[in-house]
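Build the 3D complex.
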Amino acid sequence: MFVQQLMNGLILGSTYALIALGYTMVYGIIELINFAHGEIYMFGAFVGLILVTVLKVPFFLAFLLAMAASALLGITIEYLAYRPLRRSSRLAALISAIGASIFLSNLALLIMGSTPYNFPTPFEAKVYETPFFIISRVEILVLLSSLLLMIALTLIVQKTKIGKAMRAVAQDKDTASLMGININKIVTITFAIGSALGGAAGVMVGIYFRTVTPTMGLMPGLKGFVAAVVGGIGNIPGAMLGGILLGIAEVLGAAYISSQYRDAVAFALLILVLLLKPSGLLGKPVQEKV
Amino acid sequence: MLRVENVSTGYDNIRVLHQISLTVGEGEIVTLIGSNGVGKTTTLKTISGLLKPTEGKIYFNNRDISQLPPHEIVELGISHVPEGRNVFPRLTVKENLEMGAYTRKDKVEIKKDYARIMELFPQLAQRQKQVAGTLSGGEQQMLAIGRALMSRPRLLLLDEPSMGLAPLVVTSIFEIIKDINRQGTPILLVEQNAQIALRTAHRGYVMETGRIVMSDSARALLQNDRVRKTYLGE
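Done.
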C-alpha cells in the first residue's frame, strides 16, 4: 500500500517537476516568476486534445505538436508582456505576468466554455501488476516521458553550446554579452524550452486525469511554482527534486491524513522548507555583496 | 584602428564622460590611467557597447560601432575583460573558455587556441574541470584574459587587471599582457596602478573627472612632473 502511494506520488510529482522546470529556468535567466506558466500548461493540454479529437492526429505526434505550440505561446508572452518591461521594476513585470495569466485563462474560457472536456486515452487501458504496486499504461507513459524530457533538458543545459550560454547568461548578463552572446536570443530559447515542458505536462495530466478545462492551469501552476521554490528557484535539479517531493507529499497526505487537505499539504511543505532553508533545498544561500 | 571621437556617456541623467577622444593603433598598448571613479571603466563599457554614448562616435576599423549591441561588437573583434574579472563562477574553467569562443564556428582552430591558452596559463591547465568561482584571484584574472583571447580579438580591452592581486601575480599578469601584444594584438589597458601601466604601455592618456587631461608617450608621462606627483606618489 505504501509503495503504491509512493508510486502514485512519483507519477504526479513528475508532472509537477516538468511544470516547475519552466518557472525555474525563466527565473534563472530574468529573475521573473512567469505566472502565465500555468496557462501555458493548460494551452498545451487543449492543443493536444484538439489535435487528437478533432484533427485525429496520432497521439505521439499530437504530444510533440502541443509542445511546439506551447513553446510558441511562451515566446509570444515573453515578447509582448515581459520584454518591453525588462528595464523596469520587477514589480511591473510581475504584474504583467499576473495579467497575462488572467487574460489567457479567460480567453480560453471564452473560446472553449467552462464545461470540462474528456481527453480520450491514447490506447486501451491496461494495468500491470507487480508484487508491490499496480501501474497502468498511461502512468508508465507519464513517468517515462517526464523522465526522458528531464534527461534531455539536463543534457541540453550541461553539454550544448546553447545550454552553456544559458547558464552564463543566468550568472552574469553583462559579461555574457561581452562573450558575443545575444541575451535576447537566449531569453527566447529559455522561454521556448520551459514552455514546451509545461505544455508536455499539460498533455500528460490531460491523459492521466482525462479532463481538460480552461482553469486547469491554476492549481498545477501554483504547485509547480511551489515545487520550484522548494527545490531552490533558479536551480534545475532543484525543480525536479521539488516537484517529485511535492507529488509524494501530496499523495501521502491525501492517503494518510485526509484527501481534503491534499492542496494544503503542498503549501505546508512550502512553508516548512522556507522556514528551515529559505533558499530552497538545492538553492545556494543568497549573499549580499559587500 | 580604434577611434573614440568626442564621446559623452552617462548613467540615467548623470554625465560621466565629457567628450573624450582617444585612439589605439595597430600593435599598440595604450593605457588609460586615473584615480578611482573618473570614468575609466565607463570608457571601456562604452566602447564594448554595454553603455551607449549620448554623443560622439566610436569607430573600429573605420566602421561606426557607437550604437551596436555588445554581442555584435564582439563579433567585429573587440574583446573586453571586465573589471573584477567576472568569470562565470559556476561554470568550469573549460566552459568559461568555451564561452570566450562563443562567436566562432571553426572547431579545429578553437581547439588549437584552447591548447595555446593552456600553455600560456599552466595553472589553469591543472584546473580545467574546476568551477571558476573556486579559483584564486590571480587564476580568475588569468581565466578572464584567456577567455577574451579565445575570441581571437583584434583589440583587447583590459579593465584593472592588477586589481586585488599580490604584487608577484601582478608582475606575471603584465608579462603575459606584453606577450599577447607582441604576438600582434593591440590593447587598451585601464589601470589605477599607473606605475606598472606606463611601464607596460607605449602610449598613455590621463583621465580626471570624466575628461582626458593629458596624452603622451608612456615614457614621457613617466617623466612628467604632474603625473609623478599625482599618480606615481613621488
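Chain B touches chain A through 24 residues (CB under 8 Å).
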